[in-house]
Amino acid sequence: MSQEKLLTVREVAIILNISEKEVVDLAQTGTIPAYKVGGVFLRFKKDQIQEYRNSTRSSLSKVSLRKSTPLREKISDFFYFNDFYILSGLFIFLLLVVIFRG
């Protein structure tokens, strides 16, 4: 009997081009079939991983992964995360103007 070589989490991560944590999450949710060896180590069948990769590629080609973010939202996020630095810079600039003019 020939035994099929089972893939490790790292090997599956490389094949699917995702992180190892994402592989474990997919296995826990049942999205990809996984097998436990010794009740601890996750292993995967190569043909099942190839099927999953092919099915996700075909669905990804139909749907655009990137959503374009409107310019207004980008500007809003910029000021939300940098407002302290902008206000501090303006305050320091005004102090310098007052000091050197006065």
UniProtKB/TrEMBL annotation:
Regions that span the bilayer: 78-100
Coiled coil region boundaries: none
Source domain of life: Bacteria
Domain Helix-turn-helix: 6-55
Official protein name in the record: Helix-turn-helix domain-containing protein
InterPro entries: HTH_17, SinI_DNA-bd
Keywords from the UniProt entry: Membrane, Transmembrane, Transmembrane helix
GO MF entry, a single one: DNA binding
